[in-house]
Design goal:
Radius of gyration of chain B: 25 Å
Oligomer: heterodimer
Structural class of chain B: mainly alpha
Structural class of chain A: alpha/beta
Distance between the termini of chain A: 33 Å
Strand content of chain B: under 5%
Number of helices of chain A: 10
CATH topology of chain A: Rossmann fold
Strand order of the largest sheet of chain A: 6-7-8-3-9-10
CATH architecture of chain A: 3-Layer(aba) Sandwich
Largest sheet of chain A: 6 strands, mixed
Helix content of chain A: 25-40%
Distance between the termini of chain B: 16 Å
Number of domains of chain B: 1
Order of helices and strands of chain B: HHHHHHHHHHHHHEEHHHHHHEEH
Largest sheet of chain B: 2 strands, antiparallel
CATH superfamily of chain A: P-loop containing nucleotide triphosphate hydrolases
Helix content of chain B: 55-70%
Order of helices and strands of chain A: EEEHEEHEHHHHEHEHEEHH
Strand content of chain A: 25-35%
Radius of gyration of chain A: 17 Å
Strand order of the largest sheet of chain B: 1-2
Largest interface: A-B, 27 and 26 residues
CATH class of chain A: Alpha Beta
Shape of chain A: globular
Number of strands of chain B: 4
C-alpha cells in the first residue's frame, strides 16, 4: 500500500542552521505515527517542513501522490493537512468560537463538526464565548486540537499534545486522540514515551536532524536498548 | 478583556492625569476658545487617525513599518485635487492607466504560465528580465506621446496654484482636449496594453513557490476583459465624460474625487505590496530602506508633477456657502443655506474642517471596528497579528490577506489626504508632518493595537491645538508677571514630549499590551 505521506530525505535550514540533515518518514493511511527523539533533535522542524512553514531545501514531501515541498503552507493545509503546534498556539484575542470558526475552509464547516468536537471536548461548549487568553493550559490544548478538526483533514500533525498537562488531562487527551484516529491519519511528536507508546502504531526516531530508526511501536517497546540509546531513560 | 485594577493602575492614573491636564488647559480659556480648540483637535486627530490606523494595521499584521505611508497620504490629496479641479486631465489619464493595469489582473494566468516555463529554469530568468525591459521600453516610448491635457508647473498662469484659485472663484475654464498627434490611437492602445501585460507577467514570476493547477480558464480573464473594455470606452467617450464631470455640482464632484482617490490608493497598495514589499518579508531592514526610498521618490514625483508651491483645494459647495443666512446659527440653517461656518457657543466654527472631518473620522473608526470584530477578514487579521504562521497553517491564504490589509491601509491614508486637501491645503511636506504625527500617535496609544491609534491620534490633535491656542492667549506663570506664549516650534515638540512621558510610564503605550 502506498503511504499517505512520504517524506523523502529532507534537509531544512532555519536561518543558517542546518536543522534537518536527511529525515525520511513514511506514514500509512489511518495509522498513528510517533516521531520520537531527544529535545532539539528536529521533530518539530520535521512537522513544520511537512506543512511548509520551514520549507525543506532538499528532498521531497509527497502527500497523496502529490509533491508538496515547494508549496505555500496555506496551499498545503488546503490539501487536507491539519497542524496542532506545540505550546497550544491558539489565538488569545479570539473567542473559543472564533478560534474554531477561523479554521473553516468552507462555510459551515464548524456547524457540521460541532457535535463531534463537543463530544470529544465537552468543556469547550461551556466556554464558547470566552476569550482564548482566559482558558487554562489544558483547555487551550483541547481547543488547539479541536481547531484542527473543523475542516475535513486527511492528516493531522500534532506537536507535543501532553506537554505541561496534568496526568488527568493527559488521559483525556489520549482518549481524544484515539477517537480522532478513526477520522484521520495522525503524525505525533511526543516527548513522553509512555503517552507515545499507548497511542502510536508506528514510530520514527530522529537523532541530530536525521531519521535513524523506524518501525512498529510494539517492537520498540520490547527493545530496551534502542529506547535507552535514543530516548534516554524510559 | 479582564480588568485587573492592580496591574492596570498606572494606565488608569495616566489616563486620568491626561484628562485633568486637558480640563485645566480648557479652564484657562474662554468658552468659545476651548470649543474651537476641542473641535480643531478632533479634526487634526481625525486626519492623523486616518493615517495612523492604516499604519497600525499594516505594522500589526505585516510587521512592515511603511515609511511611505505619509507620502501616500500626500499623494491622495494631490490625486483628489486633480480629479476635482482638472477632471479633463483625469479622464485623459483613465485610458492609459486602465490599459496598463489590466495586465495585473491576469496574475492567476501568469502563475500557471510561469509554472510551464519553469520546467527549464534558466528560461524563466531570461523571459522575466527581457519581459520587464521590453515592457518598460514600450511604455517609455508610447506614454509621452499620449495626449493628456494638463497644467504647466513652470508657467504661473497655467500652474496648479492658478487653477485652484480659479476653481475656487468659479472662473475656471478648462483647456480644449488635446488630439492624437504623431501616434495613432490604435498604436497607443495596443502599445500600452502590451507594455502592461509584459510588466505584469515579469513581476509576477518573482514568487518562486508553485501554485496548484495549470489549466487556464475564462474566469481568470473576466477582470482583464472588463478593464480593457473600460479603457477603450473612456477613450471613445472622452469628451462627453469630461463635460459630464465639469457639469457636476462640486459636492458630488468632491465625493467622486475622494472615491477615485481611494480607488487609486487601493490599487497602488495592491501593486506595491505584491511587487515590492512581498519579496522582502524576511528582510525587515531592506523593507524599511525600500519604503523610505519610495517615500523620497514620491515626494520628488509630486514636486515634478504638481510643483512646489502650496495651494488649497476649493471646498465643495455644500460647505462653501457665505450668502444670506450665513454664518448659520442652527443646524437647520446650516443644511438649508449650506453655510461654510456656523455659530456655536459664540464661536465661529468652520463646518468642513471642524465638523465634517471629525464626523468622517468617527465613521471610519466605527467601520473598521465592525470590520475587525464582525467579519471573517477581521478575525483573520486579529489572529494574524498574534501568530501569522498558525494562520497560514490553517490553510488561509495569508498573502492575499496581507495584500488586502496593505491596500486597506493605503486606501485610508489616501482618504485622509483627500479630506485634508480643502482644510490643510496641499504641500510637498504634508506627508512628512503626518507620518511624524501618526508615528507619535501610535507610540502613545500602543503600536499594534488599533484603538490605541485612535486614542493616540486624538491626544496628538488636542495637544497641538491647545499649544497653538495658548500661543495666542499666553500662559500666565504664577507669582510672576511673565506671560509665556508657546512658539510654533513647540507645537510638534509638545506631542513628542507627551509621547516621551507616556512611554516612560507605560512602555507599551496607553492601550498597548506586552508582546
Amino acid at each position: 500500500m502506498n503511504p499517505i505521506l512520504d517524506v523523502q530525505d529532507i534537509h531544512t535550514f532555519i536561518g543558517q542552521y542546518h536543522i534537518l540533515q536527511g529525515v525520511s518518514v513514511q506514514v500509512q493511511e489511518g495509522s498513528i505515527t510517533a516521531l520520537l527523539g531527544r529535545n532539539g533533535a528536529g521533530k518539530t522542524t520535521t512537522l513544520k517542513s511537512i506543512i511548509g512553514l520551514t520549507p525543506p531545501v532538499e528532498g521531497k514531501v509527497i502527500f497523496q501522490g502529490e509533491e508538496i515541498q515547494e508549496m505555500h503552507s496555506f496551499d498545503v493545509a488546503s490539501l487536507g493537512i491539519g497542524f496542532v503546534p506545540e505550546h497550544r498556539a491558539i489565538f488569545r484575542d479570539l473567542s473559543v468560537e472564533e478560534n474554531l470558526k477561523i479554521a473553516e475552509r468552507e462555510n459551515g464547516d464548524f456547524d457540521r463538526k460541532r457535535d463531534l468536537i463537543f463530544t470529544l471536548f465537552p468543556d469547550l461548549e461551556r466556554l464558547i464565548h470566552l476569550g482564548g487568553a482566559n482558558l487554562s493550559g489544558g483547555q487551550q490544548q483541547m481547543l488547539a486540537i479541536a481547531r484542527a478538526l473543523v475542516p475535513d483533514n486527511h492528516l493531522l500533525l500534532i506537536d507535543e499534545p501532553s506537554e505541561g498537562l496534568a496526568p488527568v488531562l493527559i488521559e483525556k487527551m489520549i482518549a481524544a486522540i484515539q477517537t480522532l484516529s478513526s477520522e484521520s491519519t495522525i503524525v505525533l511528536v511526543e516527548q513522553n514515551f509512555l503517552v507515545a507508546s499507548q497511542l502510536a502504531e508506528y514510530y520514527v526516531i530522529i537523532e541530530e536532524g536525521q531519521s535513524v530508526k523506524s518501525g512498529k511501536m510494539q517492537d520498540l517497546i520490547k527493545d530496551g536498548e534502542t529506547i535507552h540509546r535514543y530516548l534516554g531513560a524510559a | 478583556m479582564k480588568i485587573n485594577l492592580r496591574k492596570d493602575l498606572p494606565r488608569w492614573l495616566t489616563l486620568l492625569a491626561l484628562l485633568a491636564f486637558f480640563i485645566i488647559a480648557a479652564r484657562g480659556m474662554e468658552t468659545d476658545d476651548w470649543v474651537i480648540t476641542l473641535l480643531r483637535g478632533l479634526s487634526v486627530g481625525s486626519v492623523t487617525f486616518l493615517v495612523a490606523s492604516g499604519f497600525s494595521l499594516i505594522f500589526g499584521l505585516l510587521d512592515v513599518l511603511n515609511m511611505a505611508h505619509g507620502t501616500l497620504f500626500m499623494l491622495g490629496a494631490y490625486i483628489s485635487w486633480t480629479v476635482y479641479v482638472r477632471p479633463d486631465t483625469f479622464v485623459d489619464l483613465l485610458t492609459p492607466v486602465l490599459l496598463l493595469l489590466s495586465g495585473f489582473t491576469l496574475t492567476a494566468i501568469w502563475k500557471k504560465l510561469a509554472n510551464k516555463i519553469k520546467q527549464k529554469r534558466n528560461w524563466l530568468a531570461i523571459v522575466r528580465w527581457a519581459g520587464l525591459a521590453v515592457g518598460i521600453a514600450v511604455l517609455v516610448i508610447i506614454f509621452p506621446q499620449y495626449p493628456i491635457s494638463s497644467w504647466d508647473v513652470g508657467n504661473y498662469s497655467q500652474s496648479p496654484v492658478t487653477y485652484s484659485y480659479l476653481a475656487d472663484q468659479g472662473l475656471i475654464n478648462l483647456p480644449v482636449g488635446l488630439p492624437f498627434d504623431g501616434i495613432s490611437p490604435i498604436v497607443a492602445v495596443l502599445g500600452l496594453l502590451v507594455s502592461g501585460l509584459l510588466i505584469a507577467f515579469s513581476l509576477s514570476t518573482f514568487d518562486s513557490r508553485t501554485q496548484g493547477g495549470s489549466k487556464i480558464t475564462w474566469k481568470d480573464m473576466t477582470a482583464f476583459v472588463i478593464l480593457v473594455a473600460l479603457g477603450v470606452v473612456t477613450l471613445i467617450f472622452n469628451d462627453p465624460l469630461t463635460a459630464f464631470l465639469t457639469g457636476l455640482d462640486t459636492t458630488w464632484l468632491f465625493l467622486f474625487a475622494i472615491i477615485v482617490g481611494v480607488m487609486v490608493g487601493v490599487v497602488l497598495g495592491i501593486v506595491m505590496e505584491a511587487t515590492l514589499i512581498r519579496p522582502l518579508y524576511d528582510r525587515p531592514i531592506y523593507q524599511l530602506m525600500l519604503t523610505l526610498g519610495l517615500s523620497a521618490m514620491g515626494i520628488e514625483a509630486v514636486r515634478a508633477i504638481w510643483g512646489r508651491p502650496e495651494f488649497v483645494m476649493p471646498k465643495p459647495s455644500l460647505f462653501a456657502g457665505t450668502g444670506d443666512g450665513c454664518p448659520a446659527t442652527s443646524f437647520a440653517d446650516l443644511i438649508n443655506n449650506q453655510c461654510s461656518t456656523i455659530l456655536l457657543f459664540d464661536s465661529r466654527i468652520r463646518v468642513y474642517n471642524e465638523i465634517f472631518i471629525p464626523l468622517v473620522g468617527i465613521l471610519v473608526l466605527v467601520a473598521i471596528w465592525i470590520l475587525l470584530q464582525r467579519s471573517r477578514l477581521g478575525m483573520i487579521i486579529r489572529a494574524g497579528v498574534q501568530d501569522r504562521e498558525m494562520v497560514e497553517a490553517l490553510g488561509i491564504n495569508v498573502q492575499r490577506v496581507f495584500n488586502t490589509v496593505f491596500a486597506l491601509g493605503v486606501g485610508l491614508a489616501v482618504l485622509g489626504g483627500g479630506l485634508a486637501a480643502p482644510s490643510m491645503g496641499l504641500s510637498n511636506t504634508m506627508g512628512e508632518t503626518l507620518t511624524l504625527n501618526a508615528l507619535i500617535a501610535m507610540a502613545i496609544g500602543g503600536l499594534t493595537y488599533y484603538p490605541g491609534a485612535a486614542l493616540g491620534s486624538l491626544l496628538v490633535g488636542l495637544m497641538q491645538q491647545v499649544i497653538i491656542k495658548y500661543g495666542a492667549i499666553g500662559i500666565p506663570i504664577p507669582f510672576t508677571d511673565i506671560v509665556f506664549k508657546p512658539t510654533p516650534p513647540l507645537v510638534p515638540a509638545s506631542t513628542v514630549l507627551l509621547m516621551v512621558i507616556v512611554l516612560l510610564i507605560l512602555p507599551n503605550g496607553l492601550l498597548g499590551r506586552k508582546e
